[in-house]
């Protein structure tokens, strides 16, 4: 297909325009649903790339956005501050794992992880004992900027940029029964005294295929990090805001990260906003009358007041509505529905973490570029289901407001898809 046959000038993310049909135009969203021009309702079973937590256009969040528009647009965030950012920072620290004391705003998951990496290296640099290594887990994903690509799994996604990526040390994923290998590998790396931080997605590696591991491993990693004065950076960009069954995934192992990254669900998914929370030690290492110790990071839209107001409304929803009960019910609904696939020869690794359900479709060739992913996606779309498998990994990560009928549509679609695609190439 040549460029001239492309109808729209818009270049879409993670999209091969030569292979994809025209983009479907959405004219409205509501709850767990997207509505297109033709009047079809499409079930948003992946929460619009994992950002929508409560549901699309939660009334309280939308109202807060409308109200904020009466007072604010963007305001430079150096020299100045504003109430939405101040109040949101205090609110975040009040509910985040203990030990975090400062909030640095940015505008996406990738940027809040970049900020975290810079904080970690800056901490050791300013402490006079620089450390240069970052440890990550294999199959991890931390974003698509050059820094976060460096930390994430390498593959076809970043092959073209390989020459720009910095090297990191990778821990084997803690497969069931192999957890000790992961811990031993981390301990061995830490002994060099050069590891600034372990950057990790707690409990669930999202884009790497919804790979799940127990909280006990996370807690052990934190313990080892502590022994070697290595910082733990929890990338809760996807796992935060109830996805794994608790507000943050770190809550499950009672893990206190030194740095916590949050974005996607921070505004309930309504507006782009991110925050990097850090311990007092990290802030203090940058606090000095010597200007060279400043934390040199800014983005134009730091702490956008309207986005912060949406974040505040999200906190209010968490405080005033039974969000955790909703999550608990959704968790149970998934459990019941996953049972029917547990012994199903068409699937393996049927698994769940809180509101995330995943299963691997048994096909001869797996991996992201195996053709099965796009074929499944097209099939789901023909059933008005927005489900985007990661290779042969089919997962559901719906908004919390989804009802039983909606969830049944998704599971019936998966069942039907397996009849067509399992065991085929
Ligand atoms: C999505 C994601 C990111 C990147 O967030 P963007 O807002 O897309 O930049 C980083 N880390 C994790 C764990 C994610 O799931």
UniProtKB/TrEMBL annotation:
Its cofactor is pyridoxal 5'-phosphate. The keyword Cytoplasm applies. Keywords: Aminotransferase, Biotin biosynthesis, Cytoplasm, Pyridoxal phosphate, S-adenosyl-L-methionine, Transferase. Its EC number is 2.6.1.62. GO terms for cellular component: cytoplasm. GO terms for biological process: biotin biosynthetic process. GO terms for molecular function: adenosylmethionine-8-amino-7-oxononanoate transaminase activity; dethiobiotin synthase activity; pyridoxal phosphate binding. Pyridoxal 5'-phosphate binds at residues 109-110, 235, 299-300. The modification N6-(pyridoxal phosphate)lysine is found at residue 264. InterPro entries: Aminotrans_3, BioA, PyrdxlP-dep_Trfase, PyrdxlP-dep_Trfase_major, PyrdxlP-dep_Trfase_small. Substrate binds at residues 49, 141, 264, 298, 388. The keyword ATP-binding does not apply. It catalyses: (8S)-8-amino-7-oxononanoate + S-adenosyl-L-methionine = S-adenosyl-4-methylsulfanyl-2-oxobutanoate + (7R,8S)-7,8-diammoniononanoate. Its main location: cytoplasm. Catalyzes the transfer of the alpha-amino group from S-adenosyl-L-methionine (SAM) to 7-keto-8-aminopelargonic acid (KAPA) to form 7,8-diaminopelargonic acid (DAPA). It is the only aminotransferase known to utilize SAM as an amino donor. Belongs to the class-III pyridoxal-phosphate-dependent aminotransferase family. BioA subfamily. Homodimer. NCBIfam families: bioA, PRK05964.1. This is Adenosylmethionine-8-amino-7-oxononanoate aminotransferase. It comes from Phyllobacterium myrsinacearum.
């Amino acid at each position: 297909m040549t460029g001239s046959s492309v109808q729209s000038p818009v270049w879409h993310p993670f999209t091969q325009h030569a292979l994809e049909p025209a983009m479907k135009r959405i004219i409205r969203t509501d709850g767990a649903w997207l509505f297109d021009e033709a009047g079809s309702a499409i079930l948003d079973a992946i929460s619009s790339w994992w950002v929508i937590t409560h549901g699309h256009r939660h009334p309280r969040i939308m109202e807060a956005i409308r109200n904020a528009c009466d007072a604010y647009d963007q305001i430079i965030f150096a020299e100045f501050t504003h109430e939405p950012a101040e109040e949101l920072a205090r609110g975040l620290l009040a509910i985040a794992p203990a030990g975090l004391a400062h909030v640095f705003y940015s505008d996406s998951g990738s940027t809040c992880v970049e900020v975290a990496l810079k904080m970690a290296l800056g901490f050791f640099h300013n402490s006079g004992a620089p450390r240069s290594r970052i440890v990550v887990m294999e199959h991890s994903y931390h974003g698509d900027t050059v820094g976060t690509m460096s930390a994430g799994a390498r593959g076809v996604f970043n092959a073209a940029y390989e020459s720009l990526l910095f090297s990191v040390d990778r821990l084997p994923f803690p497969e069931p029964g192999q957890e000790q290998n992961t811990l031993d590998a981390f301990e061995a790396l830490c002994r060099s005294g050069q590891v600034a931080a372990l950057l990790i997605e707690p409990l669930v590696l999202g884009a790497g295929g919804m790979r799940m591991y127990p909280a006990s491993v996370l807690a052990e990693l934190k313990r080892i990090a502590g022994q070697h004065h290595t910082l733990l950076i929890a990338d809760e960009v996807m796992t935060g805001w109830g996805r794994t069954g608790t507000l943050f995934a770190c809550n499950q192992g009672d893990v206190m990260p030194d740095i916590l990254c949050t974005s996607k669900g921070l505004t309930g998914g309504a507006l782009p906003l991110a925050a990097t929370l850090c311990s007092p030690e990290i802030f203090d290492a940058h606090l000095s009358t010597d200007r060279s110790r400043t934390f040199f990071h800014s983005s134009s839209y730091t702490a956008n007041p309207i986005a912060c107001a949406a974040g505040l409304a999200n906190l209010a929803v968490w405080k005033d509505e039974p969000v955790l009960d909703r999550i608990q019910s959704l968790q149970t609904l998934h459990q019941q529905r996953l049972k029917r696939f547990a012994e199903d020869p068409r699937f393996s690794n049927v698994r769940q973490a809180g509101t995330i359900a995943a299963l691997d479709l048994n096909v001869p060739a797996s991996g992201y570029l195996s053709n099965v992913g796009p074929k499944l996606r097209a099939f789901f779309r023909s059933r008005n289901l927005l489900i985007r498998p990661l290779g042969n990994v089919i997962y559901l990560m719906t908004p919390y407001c989804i009802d039983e009928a909606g969830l049944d549509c998704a599971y019936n679609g998966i069942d039907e898809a397996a009849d067509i695609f399992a065991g085929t190439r």
